[in-house]
From TrEMBL:
SUPFAM superfamilies associated with the record: UDP-Glycosyltransferase/glycogen phosphorylase (SSF53756)
PANTHER family to which the protein is assigned, alphabetical: SULFOQUINOVOSYL TRANSFERASE SQD2
Official protein name in the record: D-inositol 3-phosphate glycosyltransferase
Pfam families assigned: Glyco_transf_4, Glycos_transf_1
Any one GO MF annotation of this record: glycosyltransferase activity
Domain of life of the organism encoding this protein: Bacteria
GO BP, one annotated term: carbohydrate derivative biosynthetic process
Annotated InterPro entries: Glyco_trans_1 (IPR001296), Glyco_trans_4-like_N (IPR028098), Glycosyltransferase_grp1 (IPR050194)
Annotated ranges, domain Glycosyltransferase subfamily 4-like N-terminal: 10-191
Annotated Glycosyl transferase family domain residues: 200-354
Assigned keywords, A-Z: Glycosyltransferase, Transferase
The UniProt record lists the keyword Cytoplasm: no
Length: 393
């Protein structure tokens, strides 16, 4: 399994790769992970993730300097190491999680050695290019087309291609021209998360994810500033290059003492923070699925999310939370207020709705499907992009 980002990184691709690898290992498979080295810790290590041991091959990497922790492997090192690892491990299947770097090495190696190859797309070129947004828009559009062309080149080598949701799969097919992309939920193990139905003693809003421009976390801070009368406490879990800007925005709005930046934390602290929260906020406009939102739902949290990309498939207004129009801070704050001031009965109803929604994303079903893909069996994509019960009725 190859990935451009892996634990301890906090993002959807890293979390999915970790959960998938650990789940397969727990089922008795021998799993090897090719990932960037952390702080020059290059080599092969036995690492424990989600309670199981994985063999992780850490490849020499460079840190992306504008970012506090993001690292990337060098393409020529990936190609050389991919060939060496494939020859040494002799895997029955190879699964790459990104075409940006790691896929360029593993995909050709799989083809050369006749090994079953699966690729999963977690990115949109437009998200990557926001790091160079100082360039003119026509140049950015041209670069996006180049990136989509690169994705087509490397994913076309795969026997099967997947994306986390049907909307993400359709988006990928439109961008690359490829067809037959499976929509397979990343899935989570809901048993790791603990809902709490006891009466709340405070108003805690949490967010989990990278602190990058595409997440629009500043909208959460601005919404929280409209809720000063509720003594709202905001827990922002994760790190990224816009953290200084977000901290400055909290100071400008006079709520720096209410917005807490935890940085990267252990899984235990992350899950405890979700359990102790009242509501989860996801203002991102570019989620191809949002594992973080699923983790919140599994913790029994109502969610207020932007009405964008795949989030409407997870968040159903009035059933497990609310959607707001991206950029409408007053609507965002209004939905947060509705949940924070809800009666115990209403809050319980929303929390139960959250738990019902996440049932469709059980990790065991995800593992079953990927095992079948690795073995070359025909699979039927599960229906996880559910509509709200009110709409279905």
């Amino acid at each position: 399994m190859g990935t451009d980002t892996f634990a301890p990184d906090v993002n959807g691709a890293a979390t999915f790769t970790r959960n998938l690898a650990a789940g397969l290992a727990r089922r008795g498979h021998r799993v090897h992970v090719m990932a960037p080295a952390q702080k020059h810790q290059v080599g092969t290590f036995t690492e424990t993730h989600e309670g199981v041991e994985l063999t992780v091959h850490r490849i020499y990497s460079w840190r992306w300097l504008p970012h506090p922790w993001l690292r990337f492997m060098l393409p020529w090192r990936v190609k050389a190491n991919a060939e060496k690892l494939v020859r040494a491990v002799k895997p029955d299947a190879i699964h790459f999680q990104s075409h940006i770097v790691v896929g360029r090495g593993l995909a050709p190696a799989a083809r050369r050695h006749g090994i079953r190859l699966v690729g999963t797309n977690h990115t949109m070129p437009e998200n990557i290019l926001q790091h160079v947004e100082i360039l003119p828009k026509p140049t950015l559009a041209w670069l996006a087309r180049i990136q989509w062309g690169s994705a087509r080149k490397w994913f076309s080598l795969a026997d099967e291609v997947t994306a986390p949701t049907r909307r993400a799969a359709d988006f990928f097919e439109k961008g690359t021209g490829l067809t037959g992309v499976h929509a397979i939920s990343c899935g989570i193990d809901t048993s790791f998360y603990t809902p709490d139905f006891t009466p709340r003693t405070g108003n805690v809003v949490s967010f989990l994810g990278r602190l990058d421009e595409e997440k629009y976390v500043h909208e959460l801070i601005e919404a929280a500033a409209l809720l000063k009368d509720l003594d709202v406490q905001v827990e922002i879990i994760g790190d990224g290059e816009v953290r200084p800007k977000l901290e400055a925005r909290a100071r400008e709005l006079g709520i720096a003492d209410r917005v807490h930046f935890t940085g990267r934390v252990t899984d235990e602290v992350l899950r405890a923070t979700l359990t102790a929260s009242t509501v989860f906020a996801m203002p991102s406009r570019a989620e191809l699925q949002s594992i973080a939102t699923m983790e919140a739902l599994a913790s029994g949290l109502p969610v207020v999310a932007a009405d964008a990309m795949a989030l409407p498939h997870l968040v159903h207004s009035g059933e497990n939370g609310y959607l707001y129009q991206p950029g409408d801070i007053e609507e965002f704050a209004g939905h947060l207020r509705s949940i924070l001031t809800a009666s115990p009965e209403e809050l319980t109803r929303l929390k139960k709705g959250a738990l019902r929604t996440v049932e469709a994303h059980d990790i065991q079903r995800t593992l079953d499907i990927f095992e079948s893909l690795y073995r070359g069996r025909t699979v039927i994509d599960p229906v996880t992009d559910t509509e709200p019960e009110s709409a279905a009725s």
